[in-house]
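Entry:
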Amino acid sequence: MFSGRVLVVSDRAEVVSALDPMIRAEGHLTLTVPGGREALDVLEDGIIPDVLISDLDSQDSLQGLPYLGRFRQLNQFGQHLVLAADGSPFTVGATLGAPFQVEPFSVLTHPLDENQVRGSVKDAMERIRSDLQVMRGEMFRETARLQQAVRDAQLEMVQALAITMEAKDPYMHGHCARVAELSRRVARELELDEAHVDLLYSAALLHEIGKVAVSLDLLHKTTPLTPQELAQIRGHARVGAQIAGAVPSLRRLAPLVESQYVDYAVLGEQIPPSTPEFLLAGILRVVDTYDAMSSSRSYRENLPRPVWEAALVEGAGKRFHPDAVVAFFRVLDGI
C-alpha cells in the first residue's frame, strides 16, 4: 500500500480529531492547519502533501484559496478531497465557482463516515501510485531515448573523424571500420558487456586519428620505413589520445587509442590490469596488428596468413594479450 502525507485544512477541532485517526489507520501521516493562508505557508516551506483535504464548512479554510493552485503546481499528481455537509452543492453536483471549476476533487460528506474517509483516502493514494508508475515508465523511456541520441551523436562524430583521417591516407581506407567491427566481435566472444563493446568500437574507429599530424610524404613512402620513421608514425597514437582527451565525450577513448603500440608486457603501466579497459586495449592491439599485416601498404603488399598468424601466436603473452589472441582466432575461423 502506498503511504503518503495528508494535509487537512480545517479550524474545526471536532473534524480534525475525527479525521486524524481515520487517516492514520491507513498508514499515512497527517498535518493540520486551520486555514488557507497557513496551508500556503506550509507549501512554500517545501512540505508537499500527497493528498489535500479542504473543509468547506470551515470559515478559515476558504481564505487564501490560492493554496489550491500552488498545491497543483508543486504536485501534479496530488489528490484533492473536500469535506462538505451532506446535501450541500458540493455533494449534489451543482455548478461551482473558481477555483473548483478547474481543480479536480472528490467529496467527503459530513457527518464523517469512517469507511468513506478511509476508502476515499486509500483510492486517492492508489491513483497517485498509478500515476507515478506511468510517469516513471515515461521517464525511463525518455531517458533511454536521450541516452541513445547522445550515443548516436558521439558515434557520428567519431565516424566523421575517422573518415577525415582516411581521406589523408588512401592505404587506410576501410582500415578503421574493419578493425572496429572485428574488435566488437572479439569483445562479444569474450562476453564483455555492451557498454565496453561500444567503447571499444568507438576507440577502434578513432585509433588512427593521430596520423593527421604525420606528413603525407611519410605516410605515402613506398620504400621500407627506417626505425626513426617507424617511431614517428607510431607516435601518432599519443597525438590521437590528446585529440580524444580534448573532447569531453571522447575522453574515455584516449587510453585505448594511446595504448595501441604498447606491448602487453608493459600495458599495465598505462591501464590497470584489473579493469575491463586492459582487455579492450589488448583486443584493439591484436585486431589492428592483424589488419595492418594482412592489408597492403605503400611500401609492401599484404602479408600471407602464415606470417601474421605466427606473429600473433608467438607474441601472445609478450606483445599481445593472450585471451585476446585466442578469442580473435575463434572469431576469425568461425569456431
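The chain has two domains: 5-136, 169-332.
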